[in-house]
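::Amino acid chain::
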Amino acid sequence: MTVQAYDPLAGERTPGSPQFDVFLAGTVFLDIIFTGLPAMPAAGTEIWADGMGSCPGGIANLAIATSRLGLRTSLAAAFGDDDYGDFCWRTLEEQESVDLSRSRRFEHWHSPVTVSMAVDRDRSMVTHGHPSPMSASEMIGKPPCSKAVIVTLSDDEPLGTPGSACNWAELAHRDGALIFADVGWDPSGSWSSGVLEQLSICHAFMPNAVEAMAYTRMDTPRDALYAIADHVPVAVVTDGANGAMAIDSTTGEEAFVPAPRVNALDPTGAGDVFGAGFVLGTLCGWPLNDRVAFAQVCAALAVQQFGGSLAAPGWGDIADWWHEVRATARHSGAYGSSLARRYAFLDRLVPTDPVGAVRRAAATIARYADVGVAPQPQPGGEVTPVTDAGSRKEGPRDEAPAHDDGDPGTSRVPAQKE
């Protein structure tokens, strides 16, 4: 049976709408993730991991997160001509429906690789790679027409610098795209306040609490939020398990949403997933409180799984979570009732079966998703639903992204409930 993907922006699309909802650029890594390690290996020893996964990482985390939420996503990135590059390209383009028309393959440039090892809810990483053979602006040229672009602010290629050539994000902004900005960790420890000057052409800035306080020189996340709101129309500060807060100066709204209570296993990529959810809510025109709440639940679903792009939820995962929250609200105490009230807006958003709702992938690097195959009986009489996991491509031979072979957290079964 052929199913159609769920499109949350279907009601907003017109013949004159931009070609893409989101355009972004950056570095794609091949991520190899080992989970369930009892400890880090000592020198000269070997240990076995309970689970292992392979997937595109880096900027691919964000591209996959937006695509799984139904946003038409285009990515510009350099890819090597090795097997790692082949795998990352194929996974993004064929399996995750990310447009790569502005990306390029480079001969004799090998793909950056990161090995991540998860031990006791923490992770250590080893990365190897070389600078991209070409800058993002040179690779992209004129960006495709899009509703939004997501950028990471840095001093290397700053936005809005007087007298300098426009970079790709500024060109996209001139064509009407909203710029959503994030920022990375500053290993130098200087936390240059000049980064905030780049926000003059941005629509939203979404740092975490540590970054926000460091760049604004404030002592609390809330004070940092107010300082950021002086620079950009929409200010958002995420604070892990404490929740997220935001100010939308264009509407006068302020919001604080506590994070849903979850068993957090791995925070990798949670910020990307949050950003994807917030961008979607903005493009849909939702109230600020709903935008933050939706982004929060997307991130909460992600941190219950291991791995960056492996953990990004689709609408199928969100629907599973919401149906469970709603069904158990009367029996789960005051917190459950509060959660059901806070997320009541999902009633008009979550897809109903069957809609081709995206769920996390469950196939390995060399296997195919069982799209359209009848649900498989499981021990104890339970049934595992077989869906187009992690892909919106149609047909029975859609290859799904690599997954965590040994960890049940990334299977096709519904996401772990709260």
In short: Residues 375 and 381 are 12 Å apart (CA to CA).
